[in-house]
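job 3f2a | input accepted
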Amino acid sequence: MGIKACFRTSIIGLLAAGVLAGGMAAGAGTAAACPESTASSSTNSHSYASRQPQVRPGATGKHVLALQLNLRNRGYQLTGTGFYGAKTLAAVRAFQRAHGIKDSGIVGSKTWQALFGRMDLGLTLGPAVTPKFGIQPGERDVAKVNHLGATLKRLYPTESGWAVRGGLYGPEMVDMVKRFQRAAGIKASGIVGPKTWSAMYDVISVSGGWGR
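job 3f2a | predicted structure (212 res):
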């Protein structure tokens, strides 16, 4: 798929996401994935990658989670715990060696650029505005719950906890949100508010999940 075609797909995906964020429609539509690009930084994610903080072994939080999910999407056996431990270190060092980067395990500018700096913006550029609505466990607003389900699917595409059952934000989805919150360093209440939405969108962006 060329860059122009990729952007057309991305724009359609962003418009659909904007409609969902406004609570006007339901569904978890997905966009076709776009390839990594060697084009100029105006069409790829170089600038975004350059703004990421340095991450070291022992670190915790959303940046570690985003790193783990990016590596998971590349085939490394990581689940996304939000803790930079031995398994993550081994994966990072293997990735660094494969990309001609000193395998220190420290994720700095060169490693972030190799991880997603050359990805097309269609993979890393999500909706400009995060949802303004909150979601409490037990929520039955179909549009809101579907939007949360679509977001969780981008984070955990091979799992089933994001599935919307009867338009209810029920126990299975709540458990998955709590899991995300713990990994991202957010109080694991299951309540989806501004902090959780923001962290979800950031992690999806760094892991290249907007192209699904």
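job 3f2a | Residues 178 and 189 are 6 Å apart (CA to CA).
job 3f2a | closed
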